[in-house]
Amino acid sequence: MIKLEGIGWEAPGGFILRDIHVEIPTGIYAVLMGATGCGKTTLLEILCGLRAPAQGRVWLNDQDVTALEPRHRQIGYLPQDLALFPEMCVRDQIGFAPKLQRSLQVNTMVNELAEELGITHLLDRLPEHLSGGEKQRVALARALAAQPRVLLLDEPLSALDEATHAEAAQLLRHLHEKHALTVLHVTHSSREAESLAQMKLRLHDGKMLLE
Ligand SMILES: Nc1ncnc2c1ncn2[C@@H]1O[C@H](COP(=O)(O)OP(=O)(O)OP(=O)(O)O)[C@@H](O)[C@H]1O
């Protein structure tokens, strides 16, 4: 479950989010839409703890995580730019979180996720020369390796051509089910929302609306 309770936030330039309330039940794939600059990324960053709200509480699976550091929130986050580590091969990117968590099965986990996402052949490559779709799969595998309960996706399919887009949407559906994730996916595409959303949300004028 993802719950935002009375979230407020103000940017130095005057942009304001006021009294945002939303609850996404456990296991639901929610899609968030809204005009450019309306605060979608800001909300994702508040959820994962990269920004602190000025007011309100953040709840994940019945736990108030407002004061918890990002690494303790069990959230997988795919930022718009994917934020892959430039100097690290794909194998180490995926193994990064399991190593931090001192998992005894880092190699098994990396190999299983790489197979699931179809990137086994990329494990020894650096991210620099990967295609957009390949980078996206690596970032997804890295996020899933932390065994998150919640997955936050910021325009994850926007750089893909039509055929790859359909395939990647299918992969997201599969991962959502297989890993029993609660997902919040930001997009500008209403077609994408139609094909993936079990719950549709819209941020408009600093308010969250259920569609
Ligand atoms: N650190 C900051 N300082 C000043 N303004 C900021 C800061 N961070 C975000 N903003 C402003 O807050 C507003 C919301 O930004 P945000 O990135 O959340 O929008 P968005 O809905 O994700 O946009 P897009 O769809 O274009 O990705 C924007 O007007 C942005 O310029």
Helix content: 25-40%
CATH architecture grouping of the largest domain: 3-Layer(aba) Sandwich
Q: What name goes with the CATH superfamily of the largest domain?
A: P-loop containing nucleotide triphosphate hydrolases
Query: Could you give the order of the helices and strands?
Result: EEEHEEEHHHEHEHEE
Would you tell me which CATH topology of the largest domain applies? Rossmann fold
Structural class of the secondary structure composition? alpha/beta
Computed over alpha carbons, the radius of gyration is 17 Å
Number of strands: 10
Task: Please tell me about this protein's structure.
The chain has 211 residues and is α/β, with parallel strands linked by helices. It has two domains: 138 residues, Rossmann fold (3-Layer(aba) Sandwich), CATH 3.40.50; 63 residues, no CATH class. The chain contains six helices and ten strands. Strands 6-7-8-3-9-10 form a six-stranded mixed beta sheet, sandwiched between helices. The chain has a four-stranded antiparallel beta sheet with strand order 2-1-4-5, with no helix packed on it. Strand 4 and strand 5 form a beta hairpin. It is globular. It starts with a strand and ends with a strand. The mean pLDDT is 95. Bound molecules: adenosine-5'-triphosphate. Adenosine-5'-triphosphate binds next to helix 1. It holds the Pfam family ABC_tran. Keywords: ATP-binding, Nucleotide-binding, Transport. One of its GO terms (molecular function) is ATP binding. This is Carbohydrate ABC transporter ATP-binding protein (CUT1 family). InterPro entries: AAA+_ATPase, ABC_SmlMolc_Importer, ABC_transporter-like_ATP-bd, ABC_transporter-like_CS, P-loop_NTPase.
